[in-house]
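so my prof wants the structure for this chain in the tokens format not the other one, which i didnt know existed until like an hour ago. anyway here's the sequence
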Amino acid sequence: MTQEARFVTVDHAWSGAWSGRSVVRVSGDIDLLGPPRAVHDGLPHLPGTLLAPFTDSHVHLGLIDPLALASGGIARVDDLGWDPDTASLWPEHGRLDPRWPEVRVAGGLLCPPAGYPSRAGWAPDTAAVVVTDAASARREVERMRDLGAAFVKISLNSDVGPVFDDVTLRAIVDAANEHLLVPVAHVQGVGQAIRALAAGVARFAHTPFSERLDDELVERLAARTSWISTLDIHGHGRGGAAHDIAVANLARFRAAGGHVLYGTDLGNGDLPVGVNARELRALQRAGLDLGLLLHALTAGAQLGGAGESGRGTSRATWIPTPPPRPDDPGAAADWLATATVITPDTLLEKTS
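here's what i got, hopefully its the right format
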């Protein structure tokens, strides 16, 4: 890892907002410092656009090659369900190996007996963590915490099996909040979105697609939850009823001020390993412009001391061309899909 601080300039940068030509400090991290001054004349230069690290907020690393993500522009991932013991190792991989993304995990998917995904074929049997009552809810949430989870993944899928009763569901959410873990629910089936809201679920793993939510419920959800997009899983850009319902729900959620996160459910079907232009175009259909797409993609990450860590980032996103013109919104998705991940060492290599 690079230790001695070096300085370079970039043509364009995005870290919560746009800036033009900027100075970047490169050491063990990448820090965006601001516009250049005369003393910066002659610094090495990185062409194109440097951006805060892109995050896919819904992946299943056990179904993909994590080493393929960097070339596709994804620097950070949130794994939302796998064998808990296996998943517990992934954050350390991300810390030690710059070829990996940074990783946060949920561990297993908490479900009732015979509930989803206990009979699904896409995950190992151990990914389904059975919770029978409030006592076991607390016990399993604490087990996920002890394994290093950042989230508690809650299965609330009435389309394929039983779901939690209200008491047990609330017990899971309360235990997650007590241990500072984000309760994330797979919400599927008519009536499940309002149940998740009533229980205090903070994040939906998918944009609701089972029913068109009424406007009053959407406004309440916009005030209290964030939604991970996952629009492209519904026919992979070809439309269809579930896709259209999801886009319509997300458009109203966004218009009501709801917080949208880019996520693909990567590993579910034939999805590109990296930034998914189809997902971005679906988000555009829901009303997100380039700025909102970037907020969804970066999930709050920044370059420099304003980030949640108080310092720079060990990975950033780089696109070798300037951003598209504001009068060409159709170019945004394809431009973003040309992103790659850049680390302090690879940034210096590109400017040497």
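also thought this was worth mentioning. Residues 281 and 330 are 8 Å apart (CA to CA).
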